[in-house]
Amino acid sequence: MPLVGDRVLAVFGLGxxxxxxxxxxxxxxxxxxxxxxxxxxxxxxxxxxxxxxxxSVYAARRTEGRSRTAWRLLVASNxxxxxxxxxWAYYVYTTPGGDPPVPTLADAFYLxxxxxxxxxxxxxxxxxxxxxxxxLLVAAAGAAIGWQLVISPLVPPSWDPxxxxxxxxxxxxxxxxxxxxxxxxxxxxxxxxxxxxxxxxFGIAVVMDGVYAYSSVLRHYTSTTWLNVGWQGEILLLxxxxxxxxxxxxxxxxxxxxxxxxxxxxxxxxxVVGGLAAADLILSGQLSxxxxxxxxxxxxxxxxxxxxxxRGRTRLTEQLRTAAITDALTGLYNRRYFxxxxxxxxxxxxxxxxxxxxxxxxxxxxxxxxxxxxxVGDAVLTAVAERLRRSLRAGDLLCRYGGEEFVCLLPRTGGxxxxxxxxxxxxxxxxxxxxxxxxxxxxxxxxxxxxxxADPADPSGLSVDELVDTADRALYRAKAQGRDRVVGGGPRxxxxxxxxxxxxxxxxxxxxxxxxxRGDGRSAAVSGWAWRTAAALxxxxxxxxxxxxxxRLHGIGCLTTTCEPGPATDDGHAxxxxxxxxxxxxxxxxxxxxxxxxxxxxxxxxxxxGHPRGLAGSDIPIGARIIAVCDGWADAAAGxxxxxxxxxxxxCGTRYDPAVVDVFLALADDDEPTEAGTEKNS
Length: 682
Prior knowledge:
By secondary structure, the chain is mostly helical. 62% of the residues lie in helices and 6% in strands. The protein is built from 24 helices and 7 strands. The chain has helices at residues 7-29, 34-44, 46-62, 65-94, 105-124, 129-151, 161-186, 193-218, 227-247, 264-283, 289-325, 335-345, 365-372, 374-391, 415-431, 467-480, 505-518, 522-536, 541-553, 577-589, 596-600, 622-637, 641-650, 658-670; strands at residues 355-362, 397-402, 405-411, 447-454, 486-488, 565-568, 574-576. It has a 5-stranded mixed β-sheet with strand order 2-3-1-4-5, sandwiched between helices. The chain has a two-stranded antiparallel ribbon with strand order 6-7. The radius of gyration is 44 Å and the shape is elongated. The two termini are 54 Å apart. Pfam families: GGDEF, HD_5. Residues 353-491 form the GGDEF domain. GO terms for molecular function: diguanylate cyclase activity. It comes from Catellatospora methionotrophica. Keywords: Membrane, Transmembrane, Transmembrane helix.
């Protein structure tokens, strides 16, 4: 413990003990010397009180939070105490015979000190409603014992103002001591060492104030009384408590109790009141008013405590439930809650219409974490969650699915409506970059969306159990086609959506990394456009798959292509070996030799001026002609469709096959390809 090795506290404690011995010696010597007794009991008595005030100010400056508030109240309490003792000393020196009347202005200061000490102790120990009830139960029991054993025997047969004020001191001391003990036994925080010293000090005060009340009834209080030595011990303990709080403010931190003692207040109160009742019946044959009053207070307190405890348990259960189903970072519901709601929606008795699921995955989110750090990544996730939440309807459920993935559960929402909602979310997220503290420029974010719908009116449609898997596969295709798009899943998915290609994941990853470095998603986008263009030209599925696969990989060829001319061909054109070698190498890496002719001919031109072989017109494989048009659109588009359209039209008959250009532009009129990923992603 830090208190054990504190030399300052040790020296101060020894000094307090020496002062107490010195004061006791002067009190003894003053028994036959009125002047010395008056000086000891009224002037020297003020030294520890003034020291306590100074140490309280020191503690109020050193502590923080709840403890600082408590010590500020104790500063005011000790000011009242010093004022009361000073006024009393003045009365002793100015009143004939040194016998001040009671009550005086000093008594007002003393009582104010008690009134300020009580809330200070409660604040210092972090009292809550349940703790207050527990403290009152134990305090009632303690006050009953104190009254019966200490105060009641001293009560005079007739009351006057002086006697009433005199007996207020032991009453206040008993109440404060009882509350301190109750809070130390029942509080939900570790008791600070300073408060332990407070409890010991007020335990002494209970005895001293009781004896003072008794002696005041029998005879007048004088400065020669040994009670002053006991009060000096109380004050010195309070001084030590203030010094402990000032030098070890960290010991005031909240800590949960080691053991559950919530049953203790009721047990102590019941046992004490039962003991008092038994004593009353044995000694007087009837219950005293004090016992009846305490019993009534006990009953009311126990009832209120049970109500508060029940409400506390209910609130705690709700908090635990909320924490279990809520994502701590974004404040959204988590995956567990989504699965619970999805299972509830799967109940046939609850289904009243179609049910849709939208999976959302942020594009290139790993780049945000790698570039700016995870704190910025967390800020982006929080901002995205808030944007998505604001865009949803009241009955829709948005959850964080995991990592950078979110999921929307859309009750009574069909496929087209879910698709439209996903598109609005996509456009809204893409339209406005996200400002993040600590980052100079707002971060442009996009997301890919997978949509799935289960409609009970469609027997051949999806079931609720298939929704998430179908939406997940749609999301994967959205990523594969260039990101920043909405893809629908299920039996009614549009036929033109590009399928998953039979390519090694390592090569697909490499194409995506090259796209990320360039700042676009063109490889997947060109593959998707080539698939749809081949379908519009009426090519069979195997040919479409081959063209889409070649389009997906053709961007890697630039890493190995050389432009040195090879030997002349039969038609007189200089063959360039680089593209052909690159195409063969890439096809070998993909284990797809059928892709080599398409990859090698991508740079041929319709008028025969291309390379590596100078092929023209229909001699160029149809897949290479399609890839060339899609690649040209990606080069020229940059998000501005009219410019890209004109580029293709200018190249008709020279660079591009006019028939392929016509089909591609017809598709562009129906489904603008610039939305498919040519713009830069974060």
